[in-house]
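From the thread on structure requests for the teaching lab: each student submitted one protein with a one-line request. Submission from student K.M.:

"Model Putative adenylyltransferase/sulfurtransferase MoeZ from Microbacterium ginsengisoli, tokens only."
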Amino acid sequence: MKSITVQQLHEQSDVPLVDVREVDEFTAGHVPGAVNIPLSTLGDNLDALPDGAFNVICQLGGRSARAVQALEARGYDATNVEGGTGEWVSAGFAVEQ
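Reply posted by the TA:
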């Protein structure tokens, strides 16, 4: 499974980001530009995933890692963001609400 750090994510601007947290978590604060597709609904929303490579984030990295493993098994080019949104916030990066 491919992974990147929040610092590497911060340096990227051209790779789509899918946030697999639940809607209430996402609306409380998320990485700017992220699209919310909760892990609990991911299987029903595969058509909403970006074409090509994309990153996947959650709060700490566990849910996104599970999502990436499942998506890779289906042929998607997904990369896990280690540390998740919690690490993003701890690094002092901006969030959207």
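TA comment: The chain has one domain: 8-44+58-90. The mean pLDDT is 97.
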